[in-house]
Amino acid sequence: MKKQGFTLIELMVVIVIMGILAAVAVPKLFGMIAKSKASEVGPAAGEYVKLQDAFVSESGKTYGSWKWIGYTMPNTSVFTYDSTTVGTNGTADLPDAFTKVWEAKPVNNLNDCTSSAGWWQIKIKKSSGTGDTGAQYEPRVSSADCNVLAPSFGKIGGNTTAAIGN
């Protein structure tokens, strides 16, 4: 009678191969999880810019607070959203230099984008064209590690890339 089965060496080779595959797949998985969590930043900022643009085009040379433009902060456990106080009545003249008006910070670390130092911001200023009453927007990201997680964020406001740093 012939016995059939796997030898100890064959089983060890299979276990080593599975270990190598797991070592490659697990970091990729965590990277994709962080990227999927950060994907909410782009649409949230895009909605803000659209509403602010509509407000600026109606009012002429002022911009409004979140309440005035009808923007509601996304309900999420991944990010905290913050706005800058806008004037005493919720509106202010468009500034000549870029001023922060919208910010998202991760609640927990998203890979190398840490909760203590990571952020995505939208800054606004008066358009530089003569006779132009519109606004210009500048998306800013705290670091390249955070920028990698939401690459579409840099296209907010017609820009091609997000500026890194303050």
Structural account:
36% of the residues lie in helices and 21% in strands. It contains four helices and seven strands; from the N terminus they run ααβαβββββαβ. A hairpin with an 8-residue loop joins strand 5 (120-126) and strand 6 (135-141). The radius of gyration is 23 Å and the shape is elongated.
Backbone shape:
elongated
Could you estimate the helical fraction of the residues in percent?
25-40%
Structural class: alpha+beta
Strand order of the largest sheet: 2-4-5-6-7
CA radius of gyration is 23 Å
Low-confidence stretches: none
Work out the helix count.
4
| Biggest sheet character | 5 strands, mixed
Summarize the structure.
The chain has 166 residues and is of the alpha+beta class. It has helices spanning 8-38, 41-59, 66-69, 144-149, and strands at 62-64, 79-83, 91-93, 99-106, 120-126, 135-141, 163-164.
